[in-house]
Amino acid sequence: MNTALNALKFYYGEVLKRRFVYELKRPKKDRKLPVVLSQEEVSRILSSITNIKHRLILMLIYSAGLRVSEVVKLKPGDIDTERKLIHIKGGKGRKDRYTMLSDIAMESLSRYMNANNPEKWLFPGKKGNAHLTVRSVEKIFEAAVKRAGIAKEVSVHSLRHSFATHLLESGVDLRYIQELLGHKSSKTTEIYTHVSNKDIGKIRSPLDIIFKEVRND
């Protein structure tokens, strides 16, 4: 509908040289909250994977807040083990950034590198000159979720959402999370304040208050 309205305005303004006088309200986009996995659920998903390469991919996405399109394009040289950083090159909006490299992920990375010795791409696909595809990672995640018995409707991107939410719940400042995720606007990062249980968990439900009073009586 927005495309149709823009086309009409262009037609009236640029072709007919007339003002578009019709008042039509643009439809609002649905603002859905991201589905977040608990830390226990993330652990179950990772524990269900025996393939070291597949497990490492999901570990990096969750531990560093990577997009799936970013993890598949990683090169061995993008990993800075000395500074415990991952260099994301040409992320969304063609922006470079650094994000964290966790100790646990670094241990798995070391075992993977010793066993596979990747050259051009950290995670090569079936054809050695190309990296693993996004769809391949999605299939790895879907299979792991099924094995872990997770009933939530989640995608591999839910690991990135969970990374941000768990950091927020642990007390990390929203500005740092924005930098780690590579968000251009803080408004994008603020969505995680709506799914975090950091403050919601401190609020007592009126039902609990009522039943506590009844039990005390």
Report on the structure:
The longest helix has 15 residues. The chain folds into two domains: 30 residues, no CATH class; 162 residues, Intergrase catalytic core (hpI Integrase, Chain A), CATH 1.10.443.10. Strands 1-2-3 form a three-stranded antiparallel beta sheet. 48% of the residues lie in helices and 5% in strands. It is mainly alpha-helical. Helix 3 packs antiparallel against helix 5. The protein is built from ten helices and three strands.
What secondary-structure arrangement, pairings included, does this model have?
Blueprint: H1 2-15, H2 39-47, H3 52-64, H4 68-71, E1 79-80, E2 85-88, E3 97-100, H5 103-116, H6 134-148, H7 157-169, H8 174-181, H9 186-189, H10 206-216
Helix pairs in contact: 2-6, 3-5, 3-7
Notable characteristics:
217 residues; mainly alpha; hpI Integrase, Chain A; 2 domains; 3-stranded antiparallel β-sheet; 10 helices; 3 strands; globular
In short:
This protein has 217 residues and is mainly α. It contains ten helices and three strands.
Counting DSSP H or I runs of 4 or more residues, the number of helices is 10
What's the alpha carbon Rg, rounded to whole Å?
23 Å
Strand percentage lies at under 5%
In total, how many beta strands? 3
Largest sheet: 3 strands, antiparallel
CATH homologous superfamily label of the largest domain: Intergrase catalytic core
The share of residues in helices is: 40-55%
CATH-assigned fold name of the largest domain: hpI Integrase, Chain A
- Secondary-structure class: mainly alpha
Order of helices and strands: HHHHEEEHHHHHH
